[in-house]
Amino acid sequence: MSSQVKIHYSPEEYLTLEREAEYKSEYFNGEISAMTGASRRHNLVAGNVFASLHAQLRQRPCEIYPSDMRVKVSPTGLYTYPDVVVVCGEPSFDDERKDTLLNPTLLVEVLSKSTASYDRGEKFEHYRKLDSLTEYLVIAQNKHHVEHYVRQPDNQWLLSETDDLQETVHLPSTGCELTLTDIYAKVEIDK
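Below the sequence we write its predicted structure tokens.
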């Protein structure tokens, strides 16, 4: 009979390991989980969203980061790497390294088969604990479909979704807009 010993890491141990690692990992509740590589479609969608928002945010008091910016959900202890992160106003970081953001305004996740349930469910449950977060975009890569969650004044979240390539998603927290044609530019969707 073999038994595996589960190793639990402190957040400080995780950050030390993560900052030296060749690959990204998430951290929650003492456990480190390696993140898998992204597909071509995933990278195209994330890149398109980043490029469109980056162009629109140049003259605004917001910063945008690609998937290498780690986000810490302080109320729950989750450390993760959203596909695109926007912070409006003064960014707040976990420490002087400024590689772990604490106050995102908008988070974007591009779905894959292995992460779709997690991104919509447990991960979004963590994200909703961030007082700074006002919008969450969940974007499919295998079909034209965008889910847009907006925090309401009563701390409820309003969902709107579309699969119409002629639609535009309005992002009130940043004053930006994303057209589905921009999001899915050069992305081949299997019929």
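The domain at 38-183 is CATH 3.90.1570.10 (tt1808, chain A).
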